[in-house]
Design goal:
4-stranded mixed sheet, 10 strands, 2-enoyl-CoA Hydratase, Chain A, domain 1, globular, 6-stranded mixed sheet, 2 domains, 48% helix
Length: 264
């Protein structure tokens, strides 16, 4: 698969689409071209029916994403217009990842800091190696965080842990992150790849319409801006029951075999 920039890698491995932050020499710190590439890559993943799950990760073994690439700020965020553009493309990329119709997994090894943590929180599942480190240094930089980002964090870890993360601005180890609900699973470093691969294989064998309906229902039930759209959610459930996959699931159960779902 082709990426608009070498700093973002797009790969397809069987039913898995891999979105890789590729700046290991800077701990995969994000830059303008990386934010611009994310919607392009995800659009391609969405159009491919063979891709059932998207893995988001960082190149190398030192970091998932360590935050923004401060070294580019003088050129990329030097004027009000540049700042507005940078914020716009960052928000667009984050929204695109959050709204991805397919299950998303953040595969985390090493540093997952600031904007990197925000990226991981936009994924459905976070699987971290035991050597991972998490944190939000905003209070050391005087930055403000939007309500939407804090809502996602607070929904995961609760108000007290969210305040601790922001008030202390310290790094948390993987077990601390797991204890507060920041990550879904913590595995030994040597087992991270095999664990994520097995997880993707398990998800890839399940019914895409069912997973999509569940994802969108949870999204609606936790939305910040008003009441959930229950009509939309009911339509998604009806789509599942009207699908060929539902027939295949019932038939496979009766025939005591593994179902083969098509996403339709």
């Amino acid at each position: 698969m082709i990426s608009p920039t070498p700093n973002m890698i797009a790969e397809k491995v069987g039913p898995v689409g891999r979105l890789i932050f590729n700046k290991p020499q800077k701990h995969n710190a994000t830059s303008t071209d990386m934010w611009e590439a994310i919607p392009v890559i995800l659009d391609e993943f969405e159009r491919d029916p063979e891709i059932r799950v998207v893995v988001v990760t960082g190149a190398g073994d030192k970091a998932f994403v360590s935050g923004a690439d401060i070294s580019e700020f003088e050129k990329a965020r030097n004027t009000p217009e540049q700042v507005a553009y940078y914020d716009k493309i960052g928000e667009l990329a984050n929204k695109r990842l959050n709204k991805c119709s397919k299950p998303t997994i953040a595969r985390i090894r090493g540093y997952c800091i600031g904007g990197g943590l925000a990226v991981s929180l936009l994924c459905d599942i976070r699987i971290a190696s035991e050597n991972s480190r998490f944190g939000v240094p905003a209070a050391r930089l005087g930055l403000g965080y939007r309500a939407s980002g804090l809502k996602i964090l607070t929904d995961l870890v609760g108000p007290s842990h969210a305040k601790e993360i922001f008030f202390t601005a310290r790094h948390f180890n993987a077990q601390e992150a797991f204890g507060m609900g920041l990550v879904t699973r913590v595995v030994p470093d040597a087992e991270l790849d095999s664990y994520v691969d097995n997880y993707c294989r398990m998800i890839g064998e399940n019914a895409p319409l069912t997973m999509h309906a569940a994802k969108r229902t949870i999204e609606e039930l936790t939305r910040l801006d008003g009441e959930p759209d229950f009509a939309r959610l009911n339509a998604l459930v009806k789509q599942c029951f009207d699908s060929e996959d539902y027939v295949e699931g019932r038939t496979a159960f009766m025939e005591k075999r593994k179902p083969v779902f098509k996403g339709r």
